[in-house]
Design goal:
The complex is a heterodimer of chains A (263) and B (460). Chain A is an all-alpha fold and 263 residues long. Chain A has helices at residues 3-16, 30-36, 43-60, 84-96, 101-111, 117-126, 131-141, 143-151, 178-181, 188-201, 209-218, 224-231, 241-260. Chain A starts with a helix and ends with a helix. Chain B is of the alpha+beta class and 460 residues long. In chain B, helix 5 (137-168) runs antiparallel to helix 8. The chains are: A mainly alpha (263), B alpha+beta (460). Chains A and B meet through helix 1, helix 3, helix 6 and helix 8 of A and helix 5, helix 8, helix 11, strand 10 and strand 11 of B.
Chain lengths: 263, 460
């Protein structure tokens, strides 16, 4: 009798209890010796000893199970994996500046990067029901996406969540009012100066934060460093301080994001 | 001031402690022995890699030793006193360490003239934070004796309760009632056996929750029986085993005492971390592995509702640091001084983790469990590929396979990282299966372990 067989007998006997059924005899050997040495020789005490000894022996003698056939492989993907900083940035973008996520995805594609495993799974879960972004992730994800969905069906999109043919998978437009459109092509200092002046004069209020965020998310990339510097400067007027610091953080985040995704 | 051997016997916590010290009072076991008119000191070779640094203030009766023993004074301090009383300790000039310890004591005596005398609660350096325990030794002894008696009574009651369960059977309807378990857990809390109480409460949630619950409950009852029996015989057990049993029963060790031990200095790689909710507390286990020693260490952290868990020990990070291990074979440790930090494997100088085959990992886990079968979790790092049979996931290589815990949270990321190939992954063995914690790629470590609910605690 093996230890596993004896364990199953103990489990069966334990269901009924030793008041109704005697504990099974331990297989001859050290286990039987331990049970024989039980201090209080009642059925339940011997059973407890047998259970404790059997558990200890089974754990100590832990064996691997037989090898399992490997899964199939997706087609090879030779693209370099995203830098660690870029993968970390995606989490920051999602948590703090989701307005940048579409650009992050497109820059990944433009740079020829392969998504790191954690980011790929995160994107598939996050955009499971968003057909357009889902299609973008599937395109960037490469051959591993369909393979992964085959082995983890819960990552598949819901039935019917498909992109209609002809839908633009490029960078979506963001709402920017006409008076701010000129700032999109302006140098960073001019953009920052205009924002601060607007807050000082009362032309901008807290309600403008959303459109200013959109403008910074779509402004010239080479303006971001000086824009972040001017919005983060120490002489920002008090009435604009909170918003300016927040917008400076956005500009700095976008600039770092673009640098991390450069090929 | 001269002492007699009877005075040494008088300060020994138990007669057996004096007997153990007497066996150590051989000059061949000691180096750097010395004494002056205030103190005696020396280094005693023990079970650890480093000798224990021991010093005794024989004028004001205090002691300091780097051994992890909870006994105060420890056998090393007693042995040093025995050697000194018997005239085996030469009179020499005190080294700087002894000098500063004595100077610190003199300073405190000057500030508080009542602070003299033995303070058994102070483990290594009584210049540290105020000791919350009473300073009167008889008081301390009485409290300790009371606590031991209470624990003993709790263990006797636990074993009686276990016996009743085996007598009436696991099909007994009483087991389905939470109160059946909770009342026992409450009594174990009263007996200061908090760890056992937690195990009992966890079992309450297993009854009826899965098809094989009888098997799970029976195995845990067996483990509780082992602990109840061993806990009643602590003085008869070998030291490390006694420490392990005491810890598993819930005997608390003060952090100050742990930090007083000789630290293990190494480059400690954060191999993985896992969060679990226990009662109303979130517990984070962070597993570290010594690059030089290969030794595993576990840093535990707790957070209640709305508190934060430390996020500094990110998987892949390597710390050149001093770790202070709890007594016995425990992997639990406290982080002491950190000398350097490497952020990710790609960082220059950050070492890779040693990796096992599946069979090798099973053997290592089994070896650990043979010494401490009550452990809930044992870590391992394996190179294996995820594979599936009949809907159950495994990690497999040519030497065998190990089942993953059903619903492992990081499985999808593990699959995406492996793309069907073998990959280095740190797992945590549990009785339900292996929990994948970290995938180790060439340039990064990806944290896939179970995470605390962010609505409960902050634990990024």
């Amino acid at each position: 009798m093996t230890l596993a067989d004896h364990w199953h007998e103990l489990v069966t006997a334990s269901l009924l209890g030793t008041d109704r059924r005697d504990p099974p005899a331990a297989p001859v050997g050290p286990l039987a010796d331990v049970v024989r040495d039980t201090v209080v020789p009642t059925s339940s005490a011997r059973m407890l000893t047998a259970v404790g000894a059997c558990v200890a022996a089974r754990r100590a003698g832990m064996q691997p199970l037989a090898p399992v056939s490997a899964l199939g492989h997706p087609a090879p993907d030779d693209r370099p994996m995203l830098r660690v900083a870029a993968a970390t940035r995606w989490r920051t973008v999602v948590d703090e500046w989701p307005v940048l996520e579409d650009e992050w995805l497109l820059e990944v594609e433009r740079g020829g990067w392969r998504l790191s495993p954690d980011v790929l799974v995160g994107l598939l879960r996050r955009h499971r029901t968003d057909a357009v972004r889902r299609a973008r992730v599937a395109r960037i994800g490469g051959p591993v996406v369909s393979w992964l969905i085959a082995v983890q069906p819960q990552l598949a999109p819901p039935a019917g969540a498909r992109v209609a043919p002809g839908v633009d998978l490029g960078l979506p437009g963001l709402a920017v009012p006409p008076e701010l459109l000129a700032l999109l092509d302006a140098p960073g200092e001019a953009f920052g100066g205009a924002v601060l002046a607007g807050f000082t004069s009362g032309a901008f209020g807290r309600a403008h934060r959303a459109v200013l965020v959109n403008a910074i998310a779509r402004c010239r990339a080479d303006a971001l460093a000086s824009l972040a510097a001017s919005l983060g400067a120490s002489d920002v007027p008090d009435e604009a301080l909170g918003v300016a610091r927040s917008l400076a953080d956005l500009a700095a985040c976008r600039q770092a994001m673009l640098e991390e995704l450069m090929p | 001031m001269t002492w007699t051997i009877e005075q040494v016997v008088a300060i020994a916590p138990t007669p057996s402690a004096f007997a153990a010290a007497d066996a150590l009072a051989l000059t061949s076991r000691w180096s750097s022995l010395g004494a002056d008119d205030r103190a005696a000191w020396g280094r005693c070779r023990g079970a650890g890699r480093e000798p224990y640094e021991t010093m005794v203030d024989h004028a004001e009766v205090a002691w300091r030793c780097s051994c992890p023993s909870r006994s105060r004074p420890c056998k090393h301090a007693l042995a040093l006193l025995i050697l000194w009383v018997r005239g085996y300790v030469p009179v020499v000039v005190a080294p700087p360490g002894v000098h500063s310890w004595i100077a610190g004591r003199r300073g405190r005596e000057a500030r508080d003239p009542t602070a003299g005398g033995p303070r058994p609660g102070a483990a290594i350096d009584d210049a540290e934070a105020p000791d919350p325990s009473p300073s009167d030794p008889p008081d301390l002894d009485r409290l300790r004796d009371e606590r031991v008696a209470r624990l003993h009574a709790g263990l006797v009651e636990l074993d009686r309760w276990l016996d009743d369960r085996l007598r009436t059977g696991l099909a007994d309807a009483a087991l389905a009632r939470y109160a059946t378990w909770d009342e026992l857990a409450a009594r174990l809390v009263d007996a200061r056996a908090g760890s056992l109480a937690n195990r009992v409460r966890r079992l309450a949630g297993v009854v009826g929750a899965r098809p094989d619950w009888h098997e799970v409950v029976l195995a845990e009852l067996g483990v509780l029986h082992l602990l109840a029996q061993a806990g009643q015989r602590l003085p008869e057990l070998p030291g490390p085993l006694a420490d392990s049993v005491a810890t598993a029963c819930g005997w608390q060790v003060r952090q100050a005492d742990v930090r007083a031990g000789v630290p293990a200095t190494d480059t400690w790689v954060v191999a993985g971390r896992s969060d679990t909710r226990e009662d109303r507390i979130e517990v984070r286990r962070t597993w570290l592995r010594g690059h030089t020693t290969g030794r595993w260490a576990m840093v535990l952290e707790f957070a209640a509702y709305r508190q934060s868990l430390d996020t500094s020990l990110a998987p892949g990070r390597a710390l050149v640091a001093d770790l202070h291990f709890y007594p016995g074979p425990s992997t639990r440790a406290l982080i002491g001084d950190i000398h350097d930090v490497h952020d990710q494997p790609a960082t220059v100088g950050a070492p890779a983790l040693p990796v096992d085959t599946v069979a090798g990992a099973c053997a290592a886990v089994g070896s650990t469990l043979s010494g401490e079968p009550w452990l809930d979790r044992v870590p391992a790092t394996v190179r294996a590929a995820p594979a599936r049979v009949d809907g159950r996931w495994f990690l497999s290589d040519a030497t065998g396979s190990i089942a993953l815990v059903p619903g492992a949270p990081g499985l999808a990321t593990l699959l995406a990282a492996s793309v069907g190939e073998e990959v280095d992954v740190t797992i945590e063995w549990t009785t339900d299966g292996a929990v994948p914690l970290t995938v180790h790629l060439a340039d990064r470590a990806i944290d896939i372990g179970p995470r605390a609910d962010p609505s409960f605690v902050s634990a990024a």
